[in-house]
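Cross-check.
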Amino acid sequence: MLPPQPDAPSAPIARILMVDDHPIVREGMAQFINLQPGLQLCCGASNSQEALDAMAHCSHQLAIVDISLGQESGLDLIKTLRRKFEHLAILAMSMHDEHLYAERALEAGAHGYLMKQEATQRILQAVHRVLAGDIYLSPTLAASRLAAPATRP
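Predicted model, tokenized:
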């Protein structure tokens, strides 16, 4: 777990929590995000308990959550985060096919779904979109959802 950084009172920086059971992913995302103006990946967690502990110690605007956390479900963590921290923007991230898991992540309370193999520009786009209060889906998934026939009751 990356140690929490103290809140900076005057900085208008979006504070981000990264939850992934792979240290290389957490550390790589921290290096990438911390190079971006206005963003700070200040905490990392490898499981649900570490994520909840980090939320208790720091004020975050965004949590990026892997939907597979070893023996735990990231989808369950997303539900818990949504229930306990209504203000928190949540971006689900995974290696799993978005056509299978994005809907589940959104239903759990995520504001977007991002595949880990996306380009860095797409990651930034997703982060900024969910921080702005919008929903993020990849262009491919958004197009397929628009093309799908509406279900009628």
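The CA atoms of residues 100 and 141 lie 10 Å apart. The beta strands are 14-19, 39-45, 62-66, 68-69, 72-73, 89-94, 112-115. Passed to J.P. for a second look.
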